[in-house]
């Protein structure tokens, strides 16, 4: 009879130990322990992605991008369109500033932007505060004297004379 009582007592101790160990393991490896409140995250935060990080190569002199470019036919004007374009450009050369974005129609200068707006997204993407004032926008009438839509390009120019054709969105005519 003593053996039966001793076995039962050992069995109870074993079950208590196994239960305590199981509970400890569950709490230790749980993704959210019961004593920690879940962080408050808005639904939109699940769709956010980290911003890409870009790097300036040693041979880069100017960087930029045409975000949007479109030309809408002007009412009653044969061969005339209204150009709207915007983007960004920045000098990669320390102490050499961007002076203008030129608009070219079939290689001929037809417009110029010399005022730049803040683009904190560009500065953050490149990790360069000197890229902050890199935004540009232009709105102007253009003509297609050859009876076809002209080839419109945007040329970024630095104060030292270096120029670079800005890539990006293709110009669409409406």
Characterise this structure.
With 174 residues, this protein is an alpha+beta fold. 20% of the residues lie in helices and 34% in strands. It folds into two domains: 1-42; 62-173, Immunoglobulin-like, CATH 2.60.40. It has a four-stranded mixed sheet with strand order 5-2-1-8, with no helix packed on it. The longest helix is centred in the first third of the chain and has 28 residues, at 2-29. The mean pLDDT is 81.
Contiguous uncertain segments of 5+ residues: none
Binned, the helix content reads 10-25%
Distance from first to last alpha carbon: 100 Å
Strand content: 25-35%
What is the subunit organization of this protein?
A: single chain
- Per CATH, which architecture of the largest domain? Sandwich
Number of domains: 2
Count of helical stretches: 2
So what's the CATH class of the largest domain? Mainly Beta
The CATH topology of the largest domain is given as Immunoglobulin-like
Largest sheet: 4 strands, mixed
Q: Count the beta strands.
A: 8
What does the overall shape look like? Answer: elongated
Return the structural class.
Answer: alpha+beta
Order of helices and strands: HEEEEHEEEE
Whole-number radius of gyration? 32 Å
Strand order of the largest sheet: 5-2-1-8
């Amino acid at each position: 009879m003593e053996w039966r009582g001793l076995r039962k007592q050992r069995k109870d101790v074993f079950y208590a130990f196994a239960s305590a160990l199981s509970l400890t393991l569950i709490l230790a490896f749980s993704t959210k322990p019961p004593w920690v409140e879940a962080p408050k995250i808005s639904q939109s935060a699940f769709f956010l992605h980290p911003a890409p990080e870009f790097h300036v190569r040693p041979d880069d002199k100017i960087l930029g991008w045409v975000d949007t470019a479109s030309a809408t036919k002007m009412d009653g004007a044969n061969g005339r369109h209204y150009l709207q374009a915007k983007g960004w450009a920045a000098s990669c050369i320390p102490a050499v500033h961007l002076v203008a974005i030129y608009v070219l129609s079939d290689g001929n200068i037809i417009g110029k932007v010399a005022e730049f707006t803040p683009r904190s997204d560009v500065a953050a993407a490149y990790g360069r505060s000197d890229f902050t004032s890199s935004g540009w926008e232009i709105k102007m009438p253009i003509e297609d004297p050859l009876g076809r839509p002209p080839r419109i390009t945007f040329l970024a120019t630095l104060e030292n004379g270096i120029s670079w054709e800005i890539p990006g969105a293709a110009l669409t005519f409406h």
